[in-house]
Amino acid sequence: MTNQDVFSKDSTYVAHTYNRFPVAVQSGCGATVKDFDGKEYIDFGSGIGANALGFCNEGWVKAVTEQLHLVQHTSNLFYTLPDVLLAERLCEITGYSKVFFCNSGAEANEGAIKLARKYGREKKGDHCHQIITLRNSFHGRTVTTLAATGQDSFHQHFFPFTEGFQYVSINDRQQLSDAIDDSVCGIMVELVQGEGGVTVLDKEYAQYLETLCKENDILLIVDEVQTGIGRTGTFLCCEQYHIRPNIITLAKGLGAGLPIGAILMDKTSGEIFQPGQHGSTFGGNPVVCAGGIEVLKQVCTEGFLSSVSAKAAHLKGLLVTLPGVADVSGLGLMIGVTLKEGLNAREIASRCAENGLLILTAKTKLRIMPPLNITLEEIKRGIDVLCKCLSEQTYS
Ligand SMILES: *Cc1c(COP(=O)(O)O)cnc(C)c1O
Q1: Span from the CA of 139 to the centroid of ligand 1 (angstroms)
Q2: End-to-end CA distance of the chain
Q3: pLDDT digits (tens, 9 = 90+) for 226-262
């Protein structure tokens, strides 16, 4: 098998929904991967933040394979141990009351939207079903989470979208308070908008959001699908904002590369769903949850989260010195790089792939989200490639 063999089968048989880079990943270790032609890459994208522990992390592989030899799936008609243990650990770590498991970020957000709607209806009546989200947000690809996504470019082709979403501009308090009335049951935000361009919410704005929600008995939903599980240097990004949303959604990093989503619920939101009102065939899958328990174990090891912050500071320090870099944004190891005029992020990312670095983009920025345990050596190798590609573009 060569890369080309994989590309041509993909082109023939796989639906053309992705704009892929010409790299067929064959194997990996840590933040280093190899393609089918034997070429090596440093991974600054970790499968869009999902491979939190890098490729083939020893403890995680052990946890997953041990569980595979016991039980791989039962459906939620029965109990399994990894499911309840992962829920217990998540509650212990975060102080939340209940967890619902599903398979993806979009599915977690769908569940959160259902929670807010049911809550609004029971508290205030049928008319209370509106959910406010932010412009430039990203909440998923289902028809409802596309509607929740505050970007017109996502509201095409698939009409009619789910009703009941309103969008306000990020960090604008007036717009937000003007949008609040008794038809609003929930507000859903990302604290750092990932796909939208690695834009960080102001602290005061986030705290204002929390206050408004409390005063008006509206559920605050924070989408931590990308920011959660240590990505920003704290276990939850909310901790840095000193806010306590009613609902937090998780996915990406929690599975370390296997599909999982989770809804964390506080005392109020934890009592909304009754048996039969929500579910998922694979939700709480024992193999995925066994891996998730290992993710929490490693991320909560003394010194792990502070090393995420230290590596983030180190990386940002290197990035600002590179040619072609105008600005660096983000929190922790969720980093956006604004390029100087004339430089195209997608083109630079393609050049990087050719030269041995996998890197993401977000709108017009480069986006860097390496495995949380990337080594300093791997950071250096990645930065060297990026520097080379930026230099060529800047001076050619
Ligand atoms: C990736 C992402 C989603 C969607 O997650 P999927 O697992 O792809 O469904 C939702 N919200 C945010 C903030 C994301 O980054």
Answers
A1: 6
A2: 36
A3: 999 999 999 999 999 999 999 999 999 999 999 999 9
Q: What is the CATH number of domain 3-57+306-394?
A: 3.90.1150.10
Residue 193: which of 222, 153, 152 has the closest Cα?
Answer: 222
Q: 143, 189, 252: which to mutate for ligand 1, most atoms within 8 A of CB?
A: 252
* CB burial string 179-198: b at 16+ within 10 A, e below: bbeebbbbbbbbbbbbbbbb
Going from N- to C-terminal start, the domains of the chain cover 3-57+306-394, 60-299
The CATH number given to 60-299 is 3.40.640.10
Ligand 1 atom at minimal distance to the Cα of residue 105: 5
In the numeric block, which tokens belong to residue 114? 């259902």
List pLDDT tens digits, range 77-125: 999 999 999 999 999 999 999 999 999 999 999 999 999 999 999 999 9
Joined together, the tokens standing for residue 211 give 């206050």
Ligand 1 binding pocket (C-beta < 6 A) is 104-106, 109, 138-140, 190, 194-195, 223, 225-226, 251-252
